[in-house]
Amino acid sequence: MEKLDLTLNINHKPFDVRISPNDTLLEVLRDHLDLTGSKESCGEGVCGSCTVQLDGKPVRSCLTLALEAEGAIIRTVEGLADGDTLSPLQESFVNHGAVQCGFCTPGMLMTADALLKENPDPDEDTIRKALSGNICRCTGYAKIVEAVAHTAHPQDQCPDCASGIKSCCKAKE
Amino acid sequence: MRLPQFNYTGPDTLEKALDLLAAHGQDAKILAGGTDLLVRMKKGLLAPKMLISLKALKDLSYIQQDKDAIRIGARTSLADIIASGPVQKEAAALSTACEKIGAATIQHFRGTLGGNILQDNRCFHYNQSAFHRSGRQACHKDGGKICYARDESDRCNSTCQSDGAVALMALDARLVLASKGHERTVAIADFYTTDGILPFAMEPTELLKEIIIPIQGAASAYQRLAYRSAIDYPIVCAGVLLKADTGKKDTIGEARIVVGAMARSPLFLAKESAELKGKSFTDTQAFQKAGNGAMNSASTFAVHNVGATLEYRCAMVAEMVVRALNEAAGSGKN
């Protein structure tokens, strides 16, 4: 099959790549461009670890052909932090222990980031529904949900958390 | 998992897409969102020589409402359908069904309604990796002569697990199929063969263009059962439509009960639907009776091939139908 030249707009930078039609966006990101933040796990759209944003919406990069992503604004987990400064969402993940093995984290971050763009202060049900397409096998989700909930309200400013109540105001257990 | 090799083309008009389909037919597949097609290709279940992408065919994404019908372009994303006011109002069952498909990450412009209707039938003996399947003889759907789901079966018993199709059949929707120089409209109830290998009565040169939902001023509801709330196929589901009698507002004039994930196609249960005619919208006993009838009728078709045990799925048919009927009757739209 012939190779095709393509320009992808990733994290606000143009990348020229030479690809085959059967390369998925995930393969191009990881194998051609060394953007290995996005992970492949199930490879069939079930787990969510390969989630990236296309035009601000979270999509499965393992089920998106690179050709189909041409012309879209692609954002990967590498585009969240500004240099060494983590985004508030990433900061919150670190502070809440929402990262254990870390394999699901890039997908969780990209899905949560898209949610927070639409709704900066979501309640627990909204968060759980938005993240329902992402599987985590370590944390049991509670800490991830807390981390997303506290992105808008850092925990040290949350009255319930400060008063030592175990389950905080945003993410009730 | 690598995709097999193929040629890719992205026509920008419907005519060009239909020309390509006419020229390549069997060798080509339509790529809309890819959430079903690409998974099957990754597993080696099919290897089309050409993918015709609908990416540039934005003309096929629309929701229009006129006096008697809502028309939905086949490429319309599930997210757009969920957000659509007319669909929520006139076709609540479809709105609910679309919400249950995949997850937000799939509903956003990757998953389309057309793709959901045309997702291939599934069976846990068939939808496996090439390595898994290489350890045993091929089944009917894989080109062989064996059915692992039902002993001695001479044909494929794969199950239609589409959410959207069940809701659309309850709503008595029609599908517009286009091919080069030709267009035809078919009721979704007539769209299915009874063959699990090729479940849809459409030619390889045809493209699903539009879904037409008649506006009947009726209440509809959809209920499904699945292991996971997101990214999972239903193991049983039911879509119903209840229309009030023109003379008596509190009496059911027409009912449609459809059960899904139990057979090679969604099952429209004519007998159970007809028995609800003339019953009151508050007659929960009649709903229970319809549910039990649906369970008996649907059980005949089901085989053990989508996860939960057959006994459990059959028992849950009644539950899903009763829940859907109660929801539709209580929705205040009658």
Structural class of chain B: alpha+beta
CATH architecture annotation of the largest domain in chain B: 2-Layer Sandwich
Number of domains of chain A: 2
Largest sheet of chain A, in brief, is: 5 strands, mixed
The general outline of chain B is: globular
Major β-sheet profile of chain B: 5 strands, antiparallel
Strand proportion of chain B: 15-25%
Which pair of chains has the greatest number of interface residues, and how are they split between the two chains?
A-B, 30 and 30 residues
Task: Summarize the helix and strand pattern of chain B as letters.
Answer: EHEHEEEHHHHHHHEEEEEEEHHH
Structural class of the helices, strands and pairings of chain A?
alpha+beta
Number of strands of chain B: 12
User: What's the CATH class of the largest domain in chain A, please?
Assistant: Alpha Beta
Helix content of chain B: 25-40%
Gyration radius over CA of chain B: 20 Å
CATH architecture of the largest domain in chain A: Roll
Summed up, the helix count of chain B is: 12
Say how many strands of chain A there are: 5
CATH structural class of the largest domain in chain B: Alpha Beta
Tell me what the structure shows.
The complex is a heterodimer of chains A (173) and B (334). Chain A is an alpha+beta fold and 173 residues long. Chain A has two domains: 4-79, Beta-grasp domain (Ubiquitin-like (UB roll), Roll), CATH 3.10.20.30; 88-162, DNA polymerase, domain 1, CATH 1.10.150. Helix content of chain A is 28%, strand content 14%. In chain A, strands 2-1-5-3-4 form a five-stranded mixed β-sheet, with helices on both faces. In chain A, helix 2 (88-95) packs across helix 5. The longest helix of chain A is centred in the middle third of the chain and has 14 residues, at 105-118. Chain A starts with a strand and ends in an 11-residue tail after the last helix. Chain B folds into two domains: 1-56, Uridine Diphospho-n-acetylenolpyruvylglucosamine Reductase, domain 2, CATH 3.30.43.10; 61-118 and 159-329, 2-Layer Sandwich (Uridine Diphospho-n-acetylenolpyruvylglucosamine Reductase, domain 3). The longest helix of chain B has 20 residues, at 310-329. Chain B is an alpha+beta fold and 334 residues long. In chain B, strand 10 (236-244) and strand 11 (252-260) form a beta hairpin. The A-B interface holds A 1, 4, 20-24, 27, 43-46, 48, 51, 54, 57-60, 63-65, 67-68, 111, 129-130, 132-134 and B 1-8, 10, 31, 34-35, 38-39, 42-43, 51, 53, 55, 102-106, 108-110, 229-231.
